[in-house]
Amino acid sequence: MGIEIERKFLVKETWPKENGALYMQGYLSRQKERTVRVRVVGDKGYLTIKGESKKATRLEYEYMISVDDAKEMLELLCEKPILSKYRYKVLYKNTLWEIDRFLGENEGLILAEVELENEDQRIDLPPWIGQEVTGDAKYYNANLIGNPYQKWGKKIQ
């Protein structure tokens, strides 16, 4: 069984911006109980199924698919708009952080995620980490399609 344990944080302005990769992702299903995502990163395609979040934990299954199939699904089957972002991977005190800088209707939103072995795992927070938003559904990538950051009004970063 695939399990993802992840905490999510807002990012302050002074974060390290090196070697970002463009991610394009769309959703075949955005139900609370399950999401089905298609993603293209460079020349790779992925299909990911995620269960409902319980605190910082949820079921997750990810499979590599052909990039051509992934692009076709993004174009023909996924809800619009397609979510686009640059992802940066930063190692801080032996912990890998993934920082997402969103584009398009979510421009201005920058989130950091860290995957954990268990929900009680202690982590050292980098100085560029802001408010924790783990469990706040408006920050879920799947929800940024229907309620993009640019429409939130007052920004919280």
Give the SSE map.
Elements: E1 3-11, E2 21-31, E3 34-41, E4 44-51, E5 57-65, H1 67-76, E6 83-92, E7 95-102, E8 110-115, E9 129-132, H2 143-146
Antiparallel strand pairs: 1-5, 1-8, 1-9, 2-3, 2-6, 3-4, 4-5, 6-7, 7-8
Give a quick summary of the entry.
The chain has helices at residues 67-76, 143-146, and strands spanning 3-11, 21-31, 34-41, 44-51, 57-65, 83-92, 95-102, 110-115, 129-132. By secondary structure, the protein is mainly β.
What does this entry look like structurally?
- The protein is mostly beta strands and 157 residues long.
- The chain has a single domain (3-151), classed as Hypothetical Protein Pfu-838710-001, CATH 2.40.320.
- The protein has two helices and nine strands; from the N terminus they run E-E-E-E-E-H-E-E-E-E-H.
- The chain has helices at residues 67-76, 143-146, and strands at 3-11, 21-31, 34-41, 44-51, 57-65, 83-92, 95-102, 110-115, 129-132.
- It has an eight-stranded antiparallel barrel.
- Strand 6 (83-92) and strand 7 (95-102) form a beta hairpin.
- The radius of gyration is 15 Å and the shape is globular.
- The termini are far apart.
The 3D shape can be described as: globular
The oligomerization state is: single chain
Point out poorly predicted stretches: none
* End-to-end C-alpha gap: 35 Å
Largest sheet properties: 8 strands, antiparallel, barrel
Beta fraction: over 45%
| Cα-based radius of gyration, to the nearest Å | 15 Å
**Amount of helix:** under 10%
Please name the CATH topology: Hypothetical Protein Pfu-838710-001
> How would you state the average pLDDT, rounded?
92
